[in-house]
Amino acid sequence: MELEKDKLDVQLGTELNPKGLFIEVTENGPYVLHGTTKIIQQFIVANSQGISVAYKEGKQFQSDKETYLCRCGLSKNKPYCDNSHLKAKENGVDLTETASFKPEFTTVEIIEGPIVSLSDDEKLCAFARFCDNGKRIWNEVKETDHQSVELSVGMAHRCPSGRLIVWDGGTPIEDKDVEPTVGLIEDMPNQCSGPIALWGGIPVKSSNGNYFEVRNRQTLCRCGQSSNKPFCDGTHSSMEFQDGLDTEPAENARIF
Ligand code: FES
């Protein structure tokens, strides 16, 4: 069935998301996480061919009723803010928000397959590379067998930015049981740190008071250099952003 962009609802959220949990972007300042939830390092794990296949959990951090998280990349106390943003401009960091409030589906590309479809919003790419398990998701969704569908859905679900969504007709195939979590992405294969990953439909409020479209998977820039703030655009990879936190997953780390 052909997807009709204007009829798609991507404001999925999740029933597990407690009321009052959201991220506020402050003007030229940090993110404020309102409400308590898990804040945890999430290390990208690659297989022997360098293909991203899973995440391993690392160190967990405390959240309070209001938790101030660094978004300029300069804090010496990451993931928390230490007021370094006050010197952001002189350090070449412009924290101005530039992302559009238009629904994602005004700009996505749709790839139609015989069983499922794929929507691709390239501007959201956080360069986590789960979209290519040896066969790229754009090709996998064009196959006629159910194993390919499962592989496509798995790749999309690990895409932290929500760039990729697999659809069954007009319904997104999303995991509704994802625990709302603030992930600190650590890109082990690329030896750099990545964005803040919001899993489970955590709303994001702009410094102008408006909310962005709620999506199950979103990535917020924490290196200070994205051109699509507050969202990540993958620049952390080329600038080799380092958050200075633990560089190894926890022992007996949960893998997902
Ligand atoms: S963290 Fe990805 S561009 Fe800043």
Descriptive account of the structure:
The longest helix has 13 residues, at 146-158. A hairpin with a 2-residue loop joins β8 (164-168) and β9. This protein is mainly β. The protein has helices at residues 137-140, 146-158, 235-238, and strands spanning 22-25, 31-34, 38-46, 52-61, 66-69, 109-112, 117-120, 164-168, 171-172, 181-187, 192-199, 204-205, 217-220. The protein has a 5-stranded mixed sheet, covered by helices on one side. Strands 5-2-1-12 form a 4-stranded mixed sheet, with no helix packed on it. A 4-stranded antiparallel sheet has the order 6-7-8-9, covered by helices on one side. The model has no long low-confidence stretch (mean pLDDT 91). It has one domain. The two termini are 31 Å apart. It binds FE2/S2 (inorganic) cluster (FES).
Please sum up the structure shown.
With 256 residues, this protein is mainly beta.
List keywords for this structure.
binds FE2/S2 (inorganic) cluster; 3 helices; five-stranded mixed sheet; single chain; mainly beta; 256 residues; globular; four-stranded mixed sheet
